[in-house]
């Protein structure tokens, strides 16, 4: 099994990553990326440790593989996947959205339905199957960029000013294709091994050049990653910013300057309908988003724990109004936990034998996420009051005896001396108020699409036929006469 050390050595390649106008070398050692790279490495070490029970014998290769790269072919497989995804999510307390199990879930879905990749003009099914087998053998960290750059949402790529703003195919060769343009925001991209590049937003027939799906090594010649400001380098210490200093997974715009993609890495080619088939007919979308809800439920539990602890430290946890707020947070959290389990309970095999988590539960929980997460943050902010700002500026204030004596005397709570109290409140601030916390707020609202898109999934996958029939039957049971 791949270890953290293997992973860290692999990403120190010749990739082109820009931060503050400079090209970064050796990402695994760079202050912006080494914290998250170390965390991802820890995930691989956990998976490689037999105690985590995260491995299984993959039927596709006959060899041991990480469970997160397995196609669920029974309810037990789904349970085992959930345990594996939860094990990883617990290590990061849900603060790493694009851990390697996320895109792996999509590829698992692709590989369960290779026929979805042979229905276009060319047959790419063998590419998908081979890539999935390689994932099982090599455990790569694959991130993805499946949204066009935010240029205009009133039109699609073919109508935008300038050629190839969204990544598209500029030329075809006997051994592959050459792609040019940009794609929006690959979270984890700078520290991934490879990136799945595709488009989940609906395209028109005029957008065939942009209707692609392929995987590309981050170090591919001509691929450049423009990162949003990394937060980890500005974090003064892990005591001051305990989340930022471990989990700032970074987001990057991808720019393809005529990048060559060999045919064997292409899954969809100039096929608008093929894009939708790959995400929705294969089960990839529901598998990937079930993984997201597993991770999200772990994060909400962490926030609930924080709120409960803050209330106890401040001595307000017995007040009825506070109990009500904690109760609301408990309800929100348990709804998501329940949806994760309900998806497993209502799962069913499709015609290929892939066990698909129940769509109603997965998309139902997702549909509320853009309200639910901000509400959870609001409760935590409410409970914590100004305590998150009644803290010294940084760890040096704790070390300087001149300032420390006042800190010890005035910033404490019963049962929580200054060092403990400040530690807790700085952790809350990193969750709700730091740049890292703000980015997470945006992430939970948008990672699966804008709220109107996600509610559309909830609408389409709920299955209104039953409730409609029930209402019609009831209406038919009485009348004026
Ligand atoms: C922190 C973060 C991390 C991300 N990581 C990834 C990643 O790893 N991989 C990846 O592929 N993508 C990632 N994304 C991108 C994400 O998928 C997109 O943000 C999401 O799909 C929404 O697209 P958009 O941001 O362009 O918003 P838009 O589509 O521009 O929508 C913004 C708002 O405009 C309005 N709007 C737009 N169109 C319509 C419409 N047709 N009808 C009604 N209202 C409309 C809505 O109010 C909507 O909320 C990430 C985003 C964030 C914020």
Comma- or semicolon-separated keywords:
481 residues, alpha+beta, Butyryl-CoA Dehydrogenase, subunit A, domain 2, Butyryl-CoA Dehydrogenase, subunit A, domain 3, six-stranded mixed β-sheet, four-stranded mixed β-sheet, 14 strands, binds flavin-adenine dinucleotide, oxidoreductase activity, acting on the CH-CH group of donors, 4-hydroxyphenylacetate 3-hydroxylase, HpaB/PvcC/4-BUDH_N, oxidoreductase
Compact description:
The protein is of the alpha+beta class and 481 residues long.
Protein described:
Helix content is 47%, strand content 15%. The protein has 2 domains: 4-281, Butyryl-CoA Dehydrogenase, subunit A, domain 2 (Beta Barrel), CATH 2.40.110; 284-471, Butyryl-CoA Dehydrogenase, subunit A, domain 3 (Up-down Bundle), CATH 1.20.140. By secondary structure, the protein is α+β, with helices and mostly antiparallel strands. It has helices at residues 4-11, 34-48, 75-92, 101-112, 125-138, 244-247, 272-281, 284-313, 320-345, 359-367, 369-384, 395-399, 401-410, 418-432, 435-446, 451-462, 465-475, and strands at 16-19, 22-24, 55-57, 64-66, 142-145, 168-173, 176-187, 194-197, 212-217, 223-227, 251-262, 266-269, 348-349, 355-356. The radius of gyration is 24 Å and the shape is globular. The longest helix is centred in the middle third of the chain and has 30 residues, at 284-313. It has a 6-stranded mixed beta sheet with strand order 2-1-10-11-7-6, with no helix packed on it. The chain has a 4-stranded mixed beta sheet with strand order 5-8-9-12. It contains 17 helices and 14 strands. Flavin-adenine dinucleotide (FAD) binds at residues 98, 143-147, 150, 153, 184-187, 251, 439, 442-443, 446-447, 449-452. Flavin-adenine dinucleotide (FAD) binds next to β5, β7, α15 and α16. InterPro entries: Acyl-CoA_Oxase/DH_mid-dom_sf, AcylCo_DH-like_C, AcylCoA_DH/oxidase_NM_dom_sf, HpaB/PvcC/4-BUDH, HpaB/PvcC/4-BUDH_C, HpaB/PvcC/4-BUDH_N.
């Amino acid at each position: 099994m791949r270890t953290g050390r293997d992973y860290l050595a692999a990403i120190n390649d010749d990739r082109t990553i820009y931060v503050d106008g400079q090209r970064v070398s050796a990402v695994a050692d760079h202050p912006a990326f080494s914290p998250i790279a170390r965390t991802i490495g820890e995930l691989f070490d956990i998976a490689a440790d037999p105690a985590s029970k995260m491995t299984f014998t993959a039927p596709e290769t006959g060899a041991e593989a990480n469970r997160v790269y397995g196609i669920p072919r029974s309810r037990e497989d789904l349970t085992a996947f959930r345990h594996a995804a939860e094990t990883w999510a617990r290590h990061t307390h849900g603060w790493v959205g694009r851990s390697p199990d996320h895109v792996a879930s999509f590829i698992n879905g692709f590989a369960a339905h290779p026929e979805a990749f042979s229905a276009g003009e060319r047959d790419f099914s063998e590419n998908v199957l081979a890539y999935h087998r390689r994932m099982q053998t090599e455990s790569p960290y694959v991130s993805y960029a499946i949204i066009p750059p935010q240029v205009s949402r009133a039109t699609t790529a073919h109508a935008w000013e300038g050629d190839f703003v969204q990544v598209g195919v500029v030329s075809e060769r006997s051994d592959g294709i050459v792609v040019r343009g940009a794609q929006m925001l690959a979270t984890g991209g700078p520290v991934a091994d490879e990136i799945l590049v595709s488009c989940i937003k609906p395209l028109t027939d005029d957008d065939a050049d942009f209707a692609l799906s392929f995987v590309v090594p981050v170090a591919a010649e001509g691929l450049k990653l423009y990162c949003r400001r990394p937060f980890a380098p500005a974090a003064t210490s892990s005591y001051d910013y305990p989340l930022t200093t471990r989990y700032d997974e970074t987001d990057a715009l991808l720019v393809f300057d005529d990048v060559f993609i060999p045919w064997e890495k292409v899954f969809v080619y100039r096929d608008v309908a093929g894009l939708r088939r790959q995400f929705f007919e294969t089960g990839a979308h529901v598998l990937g988003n079930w993984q997201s809800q597993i991770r999200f439920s772990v994060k909400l539990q962490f926030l609930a724990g924080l709120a409960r602890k803050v209330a106890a430290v401040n001595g307000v946890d017995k007040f009825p109004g506070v109990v009500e707020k904690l109760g609301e947070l408990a309800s929100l959290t348990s709804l998501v936990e329940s949806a994760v389990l309900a998806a497993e309970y209502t799962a069913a095999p499709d015609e290929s034998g892939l066990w698909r988590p129940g769509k109603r539960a997965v998309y139902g929980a997702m549909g509320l996420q853009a309200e639910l997460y901000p509400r959870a943050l609001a409760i935590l902010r409410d409970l914590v009051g100004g305590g998150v700002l009644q803290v010294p500026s940084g760890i040096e204030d704790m070390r300087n005896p001149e300032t420390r004596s006042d800190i010890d005397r005035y910033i404490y709570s019963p049962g929580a001396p200054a060092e403990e109290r400040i530690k807790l409140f700085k952790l809350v601030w990193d969750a709700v108020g730091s740049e890292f916390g703000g980015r997470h707020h945006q992430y939970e609202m948008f990672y699966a699409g804008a709220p109107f898109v996600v509610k559309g999934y909830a609408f389409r996958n709920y299955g209104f036929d039953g409730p409609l029939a029930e209402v019609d039957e009831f209406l038919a049971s009485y009348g004026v006469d």
